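Quick one, C-alpha cells below. Sequence please?
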C-alpha cells in the first residue's frame, strides 16, 4: 500500500464523515482533483451496461456525481441544483484562483457571451508548450427561467 493509497482512503473516509457538516467544499474539490490523476479508478462505481456513466463512491452533501470512463476520455461531473449551489459556486471560484493561478501553466477562460446571465461557463486549460492547451476543468451555470427545477451549477473534472 502506497502513501497515495493511504491518502485516498483517508480522503474518502473524511469526505463520507463530513457529508452532514460540509460547509467548505474546497477540500472536497481537492479530493476530486487527486482522483483525476488516476482517472477516477478508486472512486468509480460499477460499470453499467445501459449507460456510459458510473456512480461515484464519493457522495457529496448536495448534488450528484457521475463518472464517465470511455476509451478516449475519463471525466467526473458534479451537478448541483442551482438553488443549493451558492456555497459550492463560491468555493469553486476560490479553488480555481488558488489551484490554477493564471500564469505560464494555466489559462482560465470565461464565457464568450457575458450578456447571457442564464448560461455561463468557465474553462481551465493546462498549457503544454507549443501544443494545444488541455482542458482540465469546466464549470457551467445554467438558469432556466421557465422551469427552475432544470437550473443547475455543474462542473466537469477531466482525467489525466
Amino acid at each position: 500500500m502506497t502513501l497515495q493509497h493511504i491518502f485516498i482512503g483517508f480522503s474518502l473516509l473524511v469526505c463520507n464523515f463530513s457529508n452532514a457538516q460540509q460547509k467548505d467544499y474546497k477540500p472536497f474539490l481537492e479530493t476530486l482533483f487527486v482522483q483525476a490523476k488516476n482517472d477516477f479508478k478508486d472512486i468509480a462505481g460499477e460499470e453499467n451496461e445501459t449507460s456510459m456513466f458510473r456512480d461515484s463512491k464519493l457522495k457529496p452533501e448536495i448534488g450528484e456525481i457521475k463518472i464517465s470512463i470511455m476509451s478516449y476520455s475519463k471525466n467526473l461531473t458534479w451537478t448541483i441544483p442551482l438553488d443549493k449551489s451558492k456555497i459550492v459556486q463560491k468555493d469553486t471560484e476560490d479553488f480555481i484562483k488558488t489551484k490554477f493561478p493564471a500564469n505560464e501553466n494555466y489559462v482560465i477562460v470565461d464565457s464568450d457571451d457575458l450578456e447571457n446571465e442564464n448560461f455561463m461557463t468557465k474553462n481551465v486549460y493546462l498549457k503544454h508548450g507549443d501544443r494545444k492547451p488541455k482542458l482540465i476543468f469546466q464549470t457551467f451555470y445554467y438558469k432556466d427561467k421557465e422551469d427552475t427545477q432544470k437550473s443547475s451549477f455543474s462542473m466537469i473534472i477531466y482525467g489525466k
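The radius of gyration is 16 Å. The longest strand covers residues 131-142.
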